[in-house]
């Protein structure tokens, strides 16, 4: 089937099997390998993308579900050479080690901070509980999200 959607602000029209998984479409058909797959079963959050601004697990979505939607992946997060404030906070706070969880963690954080711009640490922990990280022990990720939230509030 032919599907039409927007990917990081650019219109896409592609022919694909309607039951292709979105993570495969992004990585294998469209070359957007920033979105990661680990568990493939909705358990780890590595494949998180934004669909109309809401975080979704791309390993559990089918291509047909993208019809008419606007998708954001990690490739669309920064603006030119300038990192998004959440990305910058992850760098500044040392919240990235191997980096495999980072794209999903960042996408989930964008959605979360849109809904809760001034979270406490427990709310951050709860919000990101579906995103697993094998490296950092999470503390630096919480630090980064807290710092990004403050930075983004200051920008308003
Ligand atoms: S790869 Fe999608 S949730 Fe783990
Ligand atoms: S930084 Fe390695 S899994 Fe999170």
UniProtKB/TrEMBL annotation:
Superkingdom to which the source organism belongs: Bacteria
Alphabetical list of Pfam families matching this protein: Fer2, Fer2_2
Entries under SUPFAM superfamilies matching the protein: 2Fe-2S ferredoxin-like, CO dehydrogenase ISP C-domain like
Keywords associated with the record: 2Fe-2S, Iron, Iron-sulfur, Metal-binding, Oxidoreductase
Gene3D superfamilies listed in its UniProt record: 3.10.20.30, [2Fe-2S]-binding domain
GO MF annotation terms: 2 iron, 2 sulfur cluster binding; metal ion binding; oxidoreductase activity
Every 2Fe-2S ferredoxin-type domain range: 1-77
Protein name per Swiss-Prot or TrEMBL: (2Fe-2S)-binding
Species classification: Bacteria, Bacillati, Bacillota, Clostridia, Eubacteriales
């Amino acid at each position: 089937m032919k599907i039409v959607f927007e990917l990081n602000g650019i219109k896409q029209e592609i022919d694909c099997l309607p039951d292709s998984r979105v993570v495969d479409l992004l990585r294998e058909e469209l070359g957007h390998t920033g979105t990661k797959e680990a568990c493939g079963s909705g358990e780890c959050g590595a494949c998180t993308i934004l669909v109309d601004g809401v975080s979704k697990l791309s390993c559990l979505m089918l291509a047909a579900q993208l019809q008419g939607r606007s998708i954001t992946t990690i490739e669309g997060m920064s603006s030119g050479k300038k990192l998004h404030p959440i990305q910058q906070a992850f760098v500044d706070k040392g919240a990235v080690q191997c980096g495999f969880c980072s794209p999903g963690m960042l996408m989930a954080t964008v959605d979360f901070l849109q809904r809760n711009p001034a979270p406490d640490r427990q709310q951050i922990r709860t919000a990101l509980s579906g995103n697993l990280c094998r490296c950092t022990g999470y503390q630096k990720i919480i630090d980064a999200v807290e710092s990004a939230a403050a930075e983004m509030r200051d920008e308003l």
